[in-house]
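Example 9 (inverse folding). The structure is encoded as follows.
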């Protein structure tokens, strides 16, 4: 076992850092990784012999009797190594990491887990102890324990330590009294996890835990974590036990109204006591008045009746209402939404602020998705409520909760919400509106599109293009996302018109231009599939893209979009459009600074990829007899040959692509064609044409000469050698082996040998390939000579 894992586990002894929970998750990942490695190693000792031949395959539910003695010895050695560690925390975590390896040694694990729980009682720091118990609950799941008493023991031990935190006026471990609330908030995830493990074991285990707690002084904060996880309609029998345990001390708090005191609101017990207050009152309704239905609980509590009469027996009304809004089903809340709003307005208790209740109500209303008429009634009341709020933060919290509903039902309440706002707060709401509107899917309703377009215009006016900070970039991204998600269905002309309006309104956003062109090309593809009316609309889409692409500043992206549009034009049968767009794409290469260091490695790869895509497209575009059948290829060669800023690596990659293109054009039948019967392929036009073959031969010779010059001009020896091998491999796989080809490849290999180590793998594999092809050529020549002699005889 390496010292690394021991050091990692030791990190969890320092609980002074505020990011302890994050640190715990990282450490646990490392521990789990160690546990998996040890498990697999021991398992392989059983399943394979020393010479790695398979012996057996362990079933999922194997027993210790199935394990060979060598594997058991290895496993036992691991536990002995861990047991020799002096520090308690690393020893516990490392044993927990390989806890399931006990399955190789034992068939009963209850005593083992209980021993680990007892060891954890030596950890005085409550935070360290709580997360040790959490990791135990996590690891023990792999042992298939029949007895879950260790979970109850763990919660009992954590409860004792929590009581020390709450009662001790000095310090506990590294934590001062001032940080008690923060400490308990860090411990809460551990308790939540263990309680969830208990819940998954069933109601009987939960009752055993409650009986265990009943025997000691109940820790209200600790029990509160459990209560907050209870569903008030599914765990009704539990309320009898919980209420009987906490009611005496809880009622004292409620009678004195201490839940409203500033001290208690800031203390560690605030959230817990609120949950207990709600549970106690709901338990009273369920058990004493025999009310078990969710709707009846609302009615019995007083929703829909006079608040002063219905709740006179209950303190902290807002606490209970907040709890009910959080836990009751969405349909029940939505059916009583208007009555709940009346209840909130009449309520004078401020234990939980009303805007938080309105927010929960909005979320439940959205979940239920009731009919438009019932939702409109609620929204009218909410708009009245919003008009009464002067606090901007509370106003935005409520408004945000109902934006999804307004978007879902395409309501016209946005204007009323925004009339109260101005400046940065208005922009914040607009950004939130666009965020919510663009997260669900396509935006199809014309009224909704128009409103969001106006929202985007306002946001666009606040973007400073000279200083694109994070906020401005976020605004631009939201506007671009909105435009990209608009969909008018079969109304293609309307969609193209919308794209034109967006280009005019948001022309300063480069990211949006990409979206506009992709959307226009997508419409063009749809029109190609519709044979009836595609030609006129296709030309409109191509014209839109041709006008928009030149305004993009990034040359690489501009070239990519030209090629994308050229491909669509070719598939639509518009060959002249496609040729013009390819010519524009070649022109983009002149604007690129293709030296090494001027672009990232991804950009360099992108340039090479785009030129390869350009060559593959040239294979499909029919040659022009008037200007020469390979005029576009010659333009590409001339552009690259005269580009003084292009690096040797990029030039070699591009010229190799041109060699592959010339080899492809010489085939009798191409591997692929344009998906349009009206586009005649070059193999149908020129195969067998001697002038075409001469043109291709001339291009191949020219490109090889250029390649050789570029390679020789490379100053770095290793780079020069690899470039020579790249060119050699390209020639070998592109053309049939011949004496002329062998001479050219030999010269390239000689360059590589002068620059690279003789044992270089790339060099040796290339030489091997050439030797194999040359031997095939020799066999063919010998066979030809033998056939000639036979004929002569």
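The amino acid assigned to each position is listed next.
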């Amino acid at each position: 076992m390496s010292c690394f894992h021991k050091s990692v586990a030791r990190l969890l002894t320092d609980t002074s850092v505020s990011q302890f929970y994050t640190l715990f998750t990282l450490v646990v990942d490392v521990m789990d990784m160690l546990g998996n490695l040890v498990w697999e190693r021991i398992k392989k000792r059983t399943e394979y012999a020393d010479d790695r031949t398979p012996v057996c395959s362990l079933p999922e539910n194997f027993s210790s009797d199935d394990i060979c003695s060598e594997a058991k010895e290895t496993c036992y050695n691991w536990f002995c190594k861990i047991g020799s560690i002096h520090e308690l925390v690393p020893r516990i975590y490392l044993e927990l990491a390989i806890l399931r390896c006990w399955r190789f040694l034992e068939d009963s694990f209850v005593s083992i887990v209980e021993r680990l729980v007892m060891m954890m009682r030596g950890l005085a720091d409550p935070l360290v102890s709580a997360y040790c118990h959490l990791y135990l609950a996590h690891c023990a799941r792999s042992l298939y324990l029949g007895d879950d008493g260790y979970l109850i023991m763990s919660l009992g031990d954590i409860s004792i330590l929590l009581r020390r935190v709450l009662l001790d006026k000095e310090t506990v471990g590294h934590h001062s009294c001032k940080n008690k609330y923060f400490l308990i908030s860090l411990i809460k995830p551990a308790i939540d996890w263990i309680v969830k493990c208990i819940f998954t074991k069933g109601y009987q285990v939960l009752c055993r835990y409650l009986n265990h707690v009943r025997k000691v002084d109940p820790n209200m904060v600790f029990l509160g974590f459990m209560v907050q996880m209870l569903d008030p309609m599914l765990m009704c029998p539990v309320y009898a036990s919980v209420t009987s345990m906490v009611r005496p001390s809880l009622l004292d708090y409620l009678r004195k109204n201490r839940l409203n005191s500033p001290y208690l609101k800031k203390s560690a017990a605030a959230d817990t006591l609120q949950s207990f207050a709600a549970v106690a009152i709901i338990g009273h309704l369920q058990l004493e008045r025999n009310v078990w239905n969710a709707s009846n609980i609302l009615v019995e509590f007083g929703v829909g009746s006079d608040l002063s009469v219905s709740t006179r027996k209950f303190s902290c009304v807002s606490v209970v209402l907040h709890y009910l809004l959080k836990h009751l089903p969405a349909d029940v809340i939505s059916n009583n939404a208007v009555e709940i709003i009346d209840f909130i307005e009449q309520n004078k208790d401020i234990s939980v602020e009303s805007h938080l209740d309105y927010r929960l109500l909005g979320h439940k209303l959205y979940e239920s998705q009731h009919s438009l008429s019932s939702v409109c009634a609620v929204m009218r009341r909410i708009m009245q409520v919003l008009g009464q709020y002067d606090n901007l933060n509370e106003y935005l919290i409520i408004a945000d909760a109902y934006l999804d509903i307004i978007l879902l039902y395409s309501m016209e309440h946005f204007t009323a919400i925004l009339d109260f706002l101005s400046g940065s707060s208005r922009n914040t709401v607009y950004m939130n509106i666009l965020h919510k509107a663009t997260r669900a899917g396509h935006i199809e309703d014309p009224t909704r599109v128009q409103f969001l377009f106006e929202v985007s215009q306002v946001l666009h006016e606040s973007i400073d293009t000279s200083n694109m900070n994070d906020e401005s970039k976020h605004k631009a991204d939201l506007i671009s996302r909105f435009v990209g998600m608009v969909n008018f269905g079969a109304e293609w002309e309307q969609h193209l018109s919308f794209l034109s309006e967006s280009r005019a309104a948001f022309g300063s956003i480069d990211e949006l231009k990409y979206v506009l062109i992709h959307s226009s090309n997508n419409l063009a593809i749809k029109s190609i599939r519709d044979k009836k009316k595609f030609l006129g609309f296709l030309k409109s889409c191509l014209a839109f893209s041709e006008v928009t692409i030149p305004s993009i500043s990034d040359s690489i992206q501009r070239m990519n979009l030209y090629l994308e549009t050229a491909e669509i034009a070719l598939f639509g049968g518009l060959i002249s459009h496609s040729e013009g767009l390819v010519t524009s794409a070649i022109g983009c290469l002149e604007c690129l600074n293709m030296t090494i260091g001027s672009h990232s490695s991804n950009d360099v790869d992108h340039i090479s990829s785009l030129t390869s895509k350009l060559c593959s497209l040239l294979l499909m575009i029919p040659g022009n007899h008037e200007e020469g059948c390979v005029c576009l290829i010659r333009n590409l060669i001339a552009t690259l040959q005269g580009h003084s800023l292009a690096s040797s690596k990029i030039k070699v990659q591009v010229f190799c692509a041109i060699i592959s293109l010339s080899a492809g054009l010489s085939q009798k039948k191409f591997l692929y064609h344009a998906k349009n019967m009206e586009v005649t392929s070059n193999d149908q036009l020129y195969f067998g044409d001697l002038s075409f073959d001469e043109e291709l031969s001339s291009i191949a010779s020219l490109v090889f000469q250029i390649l050789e010059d570029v390679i020789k001009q490379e100053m770095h020896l290793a780079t020069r050698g690899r470039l020579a091998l790249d060119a050699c491999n390209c020639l070998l796989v592109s053309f049939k082996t011949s004496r002329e080809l062998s001479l050219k490849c030999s010269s390239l290999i000689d360059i590589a040998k002068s620059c690279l180590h003789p044992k270089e793998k790339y060099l040796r594999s290339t030489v091997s390939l050439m030797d194999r092809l040359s031997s095939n050529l020799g066999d063919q020549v010998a066979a030809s000579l033998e056939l000639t002699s036979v004929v002569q005889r």
